[in-house]
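Archive entry. Fields below.
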Amino acid sequence: MTDDDGKHFITGAAGFIGSTLADALLRTGRQVVGYDNLSTGRERFLIQALVDPNFTLIRGDVLDAFSLTAAMRGCSTVWHLAANADVRFGLRHPRRDLEQNAIATANVLEAMRVNGVRDILFSSTGSIYGEAAVIPTPEDAPFPAQTSLYGASKLAGEGLISAYCQGFGFRGVVFRFVSMLGERYTHGHVFDFVRHLLREPERLPVLGDGNQRKSYLYVGDCVKAMLRVRAKMPEVFQVYNLGADAYCTVKDSIGWIGGRMGLAPKLEFSGGERGWIGDSPFIYLDTKKIRALGWDNQLTIRQGVESTVDWLLANSWIFGERP
Amino acid sequence: MTDDDGKHFITGAAGFIGSTLADALLRTGRQVVGYDNLSTGRERFLIQALVDPNFTLIRGDVLDAFSLTAAMRGCSTVWHLAANADVRFGLRHPRRDLEQNAIATANVLEAMRVNGVRDILFSSTGSIYGEAAVIPTPEDAPFPAQTSLYGASKLAGEGLISAYCQGFGFRGVVFRFVSMLGERYTHGHVFDFVRHLLREPERLPVLGDGNQRKSYLYVGDCVKAMLRVRAKMPEVFQVYNLGADAYCTVKDSIGWIGGRMGLAPKLEFSGGERGWIGDSPFIYLDTKKIRALGWDNQLTIRQGVESTVDWLLANSWIFGERP
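PREDICTED_STRUCTURE:
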């Protein structure tokens, strides 16, 4: 064990980022308890972890206070990554974001209090900056209005964590992510495009006009940043933007995807500036604060997109598994 | 009727601000449905309203989605004022703020959607600015960290409202209040001080060092500002700070209270900068935005404190009614 910081508890451990984090923690010899209801997480992402004696997977729901509290016993750090992670469908299920992101976070905090766990690191989102007045957007940007239920519910989670840090002596970190890419990526536009092109290689319908700018981060770089912050936990509470110092357009990414797949589909744009209601046309975060800790992203956005395409092509079971 | 804007629905209608707003709306001939579970609201505050044929009081809880939805039928404006309004006890009941302020707001929004009601005005708080980096604090201050569960839960409510405005075509207003004073004031330090001095006129225990600065607004001025904003509803969503362009210290207010009561108690300070964990030492809001609508407060802070003392002395039943 390189760092005796006790047992790590990961909610959403079978998810895209959660499973990558679990593997990274296990590689350094740490003990990890994964907690996941497997509603969107995949046990298959934990193939490596599950053969590691330092790993335990507990199937449970963050809305089940009793199961959550019992599962967390003996842990000393909580990575709260379980979430309703798809910003696009908030309006179809207005309650889901509140439950999965805000109430679930309240449950995690109470479970920590009951178990005497002090340290929490939370995956929030650049979506909470709404229509950002400042781009690249720093952590202390002007107080934004929320444009999605996803952002609103993540902001609620952030606020609860901060209040627990102030009120109960917790130490908390909020990561505001841009979109992530890389191995085990399971939703978002690169996923949708690859899936579509596997079925229908000649044409590709694209929401919006394709000029939406997107700043992606490679999941491996993301996890490295998270571990770096964990090694320097703040006394009380800090927010870190996590993103790349670059962006691409949706069209750029389509070019890279097509290149990787050896395809040149006809693009059919639905038109308009935005892909969906509540979509922010441009999330581009100022990452000076995390870079000041010595972190830098290793993969460019293009490399991130390409590694994602490679992984999706090598793991096409992911498309067939669920509708 | 001076303005045909349909029936007004007030959650927390039996509360301090809710009942004052109900009276003001009824004075202009509007129809008002008051919704209150009477847990902290007082039916006695609605003595005038209850004899008005344009007023209906429905006893119900904002957490009861069915009752709330039924009660709102036929209304066209929602004033969502029901809340757990006491910032001080959040840590004793960590779930209460989330339920009363965030989940309740989600319920109000869903009840509106079901009933086809578009307009919502919401009572939030200057507490959400936490340890404000800019004082006086404008609506677009740097993104703050939350210092209380109360603030965090109100921020969650704000975010949900904003997201509904963006996603469902609602029109929303968030009012961020300083502390209010005036007739029907039922909690806070002026209340506590008057109650204590009625029992024990010679001495007064004071939390903190008495130098905490407080910016109060008179409830009558607050309601006038709210009605002015209602008359100019934004197309989508706006935030307005509501406060006075002045402040006093807790010691100042004690002097005014003592003067009004003809007492000069010995002050016993508990010491320290803050009254309680999560108390913000100074909430002083920039109110240029609301003033640009032509509103100004009529009563000074001193007049607000004195009117409160007069009302409390004339209504001492309020001290006996509940512990």
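CURATOR_NOTE: The radius of gyration of chain A is 19 Å.
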